[in-house]
Structures are given as structure tokens and as C-alpha cells.
Amino acid sequence: MSTKVAIIGAGLGGLACAIALRKQGFEVQVYEKAKKFRPAGAGLGLLPNGLNSLEAIEPDLVKNIKSFGCCVTKSSLRNTLGEIIRSSPRRDLFWDKYGQPLVTVWWWNLQQILASKLPPDIIHLDHRCLDFQQDEDSVKIYFGNGKTASADLLIGADGINSAVRKKLIADEQPRYLGSFCWRAVVKCDQSFIEPNELVFIRGDKQFMYLLNLGDGNISWITRKLSPEYQLSANAAETKSRVLDEIADWAEPIQAIVQATDAERILEGPICDRLPLSSWSKGRVTLLGDAAHPMSPAMGQGANMTFEDAYALANCLSKSSSIEKAFTNYEKNRLERTKIIQTYSAKREMRYYETDEQKAGRETPPESPTIDEIRQWLYSYKPL
Ligand SMILES: Cc1cc2nc3c(=O)[nH]c(=O)nc-3n(C[C@H](O)[C@H](O)[C@H](O)COP(=O)(O)OP(=O)(O)OC[C@H]3O[C@@H](n4cnc5c(N)ncnc54)[C@H](O)[C@@H]3O)c2cc1C
Fold first, then answer.
1. Of all atoms in ligand 1, which is nearest to the CA of residue 293?
2. How far, in Å, from the CA of 92 to the mean position of ligand 1?
3. What is the band of 294 on the pLDDT scale with cuts at 50, 70, 90?
4. Do residues 36 and 289 lie in contact, with contact meaning Cβ atoms separated by under 8 Å?
5. 303 in contact with ligand 1, CB cutoff 6 A
6. pTM for the whole thing?
7. Neighbours of 90 (CB within 10 A)
8. 359 vs 354: CA distance, rounded Å
9. Cα of 29 to ligand 1 centre, how many Å?
10. For the domain with range 4-33+126-174+276-376, which CATH number is right: 3.40.309.10, 1.10.8.60, 3.50.50.60, 3.40.720.10?
11. Contact of 152 with 138, CB cutoff 8 Å
12. Nearest atom (ligand 1) to Cα of 143
């Protein structure tokens, strides 16, 4: 079995897969387009299936993530005046049932925890992959800085706008789902949100999550129903747009956005792609958002990516050829990710339903129910 692996993308999936492959004895190089690692991304939620996959890769990772991030023990639903509509303990729901909590963590912290498990000299920053060529013996990769690299196999872990996927699959652009998003991380007064709490604020065709990320950081993520969208011209305009959108919301919520450095607000459309029936050819395969980008409505993008990382490393270590390994990897991952991609797209629009629309839809109850889907998702055992 070939042993030299090139991974494009030092995001969550690329780094997790590099750790898993090195533990199986593969020689791995990771190529990342960013010129340096810097605080980036927003908060995200790691769920039992993702944490179990990370634990299977390296138990220490999950210990570090739990001590860095926030183990959620309570969630509350509020209206835009900040009043609590419903509040529930989360501990029973996740920990007791699935043996893992819900952990909210900053993308950047997660990236750094993963990177710290790799020798720095195998991560090559300022290497934007532009193209690759494969033949019977190897893959040659071409970078924007003029350099090239060769490997026995190539893994595209370069996110939703993957350059590897563009060459491999040549499909259409990501699909806009009609939901527009602003998100950021801020260190600010925490009187509105309790430690270890996750807050969901429901507005009119708009909502906001507040996540504790540990170390005094909060992430706010707001999405708005927008059949069409336009990006802001600059950071100041982005911030004033968000403040306009929540102008009649409770003052403490506005204060969290007000305290955010405009340059740190991420703005963008929520997109996915339609599921593929295969995502490998010859010596090249895909992983994470490059393979199956999905709406964040089920909070599964990163979690599915960690499932992929473990599964791919496992298939490569147990198969006698690349072809067999990729066949097993796809057998393991295609159906599951297709279900959750499709379900997540549907759930994105559920956020914007009125109470009447919800009530109308709930008779008869949908099948499978959200609880059945969650049960299936969270009780996944890394394969
Ligand atoms: C609003 C929002 C909220 C979310 N919330 C959650 C959540 O709660 N839970 C969850 O599980 N998921 C969530 N996600 C999804 C999650 O962030 C992604 O699914 C996850 O980061 C995918 O990991 P990845 O490694 O595939 O891609 P990424 O994390 O996007 O990493 C890709 C890496 O590749 C690099 N790269 C890109 N192109 C190139 C190139 N040509 N050459 C070299 N390097 C390149 C990038 O710089 C980046 O470092 C959310 C997403 C959004 C948009």
C-alpha cells in the first residue's frame, strides 16, 4: 500500500485526517493556502458523533477540546426582548444518553488544538492548490506560489469551494439556500448568557445563537431569511447592517454585537451542494465540506468531517490498494452524509416558519422525527 499522502487544506478535516493517518504509519504533508494561522472562524458545536470520532483518532484531542471550550449544560429559547420562552437542561439529553456532552468551541481554537498534534514542518502554509495531475504511479500537485509536490495519493480537504473537487468532479457552484449569515467571536460582558448555556433567540424570519466558547469568549451567529443577498462593501457596513437588523431587539443582545470588532464579523450566504454518488477517482478523494457541504441547521458539518477523517484513515490502513480503500470509504460515508445533507437543507427553512406553519406541518408528525434523526446521528460509532 502507498504511504505518501498529500492533504490539501489545514482546516478541521485536513488536520484531523493527518493525525489519524500518521498514527497508522503514513507519511503525510498538509498544504494550506493561508499565509499564517490567525484567529478565524466563529463558534461551532461538537456533538457526540463528532467527539467520538475525534476520540477514536486521538483521545487527548477530546480532553483538550473539553478543557478549552464549553460543555453545554443548559439551553434556552428566548424572544427578541431577551425573555426566556423555554429553558432545558442539556446534560441528560447528550451526556447520559450518548456518553459525550455538547461542546461549543471556537473554530480557531479547534484548528490550533489539532495542529498542535502534528509536527510543524509537515504543514505548508502559503500553498494554495491550483491543480493536480495523476497517472498510474503518483499525483503531482501545483501551487499558487509556483511550487509542486508529488504523493501517492491526494486528499482534498479544502472546504466548500474546493479546488480539488473542481478538478475531480467539475460540478456546479454551491447552491444558495436562501439564508444569509453573520457571525463573530467577541470577548464581552456575559451577563446575558450563563456560563455553560447555549441561547437561541427567535425573531421574525431571523434568529441568533449565542455560544459560550470558554476563556470569556462568546460567539454570536445570526441568520436571516433572504431569497436574494448582497455582500457588504466593507467591514463597517457589515457591522451596521447587523445592528440595523436587530435594532428593535433587547439592548443586551445589541450590546454583544456592538462590542464586536467589525473586522472580525464574517458575512456570507448559507450554501450546500447536492449529494454525490462518488467522490474519488484514481489516487484522489475528498473529505468534509469538499465532499458534502451542508447547511449548518443540524450542526453537523464539522462533526461529519471528523467521522470522515477517522473512516478514511481506517480504510486506507486496512486495505491492500488505494482503489479498495476508497471504495470502502465511500461505502462507509456516502449514504450517511447524503441523508444528513438533505435533512440539513430542509431544516434550514424550518427556522423561518411561523407557529401556524409549524402546527400545520406537525399533523401528521413527520417521519422520521427530529428525535429519531438525532438518535441515529449521535449514536454513530466510528468505523
Ligand atoms: C454559520 C455556520 C455555522 C456552523 N456551525 C457548525 C456547528 O455548529 N457544528 C458543526 O459541526 N459544523 C458547523 N459548521 C460547518 C463547519 O464549519 C464545516 O463543516 C467544517 O469546518 C468543515 O471542515 P473542512 O475541513 O471540510 O473545511 P474547512 O474547515 O472550511 O477547511 C478548509 C481549509 O482548506 C483551506 N483551503 C481552501 N482552499 C484551498 C486551496 N485551494 N489550497 C489550499 N488550502 C485551501 C482553507 O483555508 C481551510 O483552512 C458551520 C458552518 C457555518 C457556515
1. 19
2. 29
3. very high
4. no
5. yes
6. 0.96
7. 17
8. 9
9. 19
10. 3.50.50.60
11. yes
12. 42
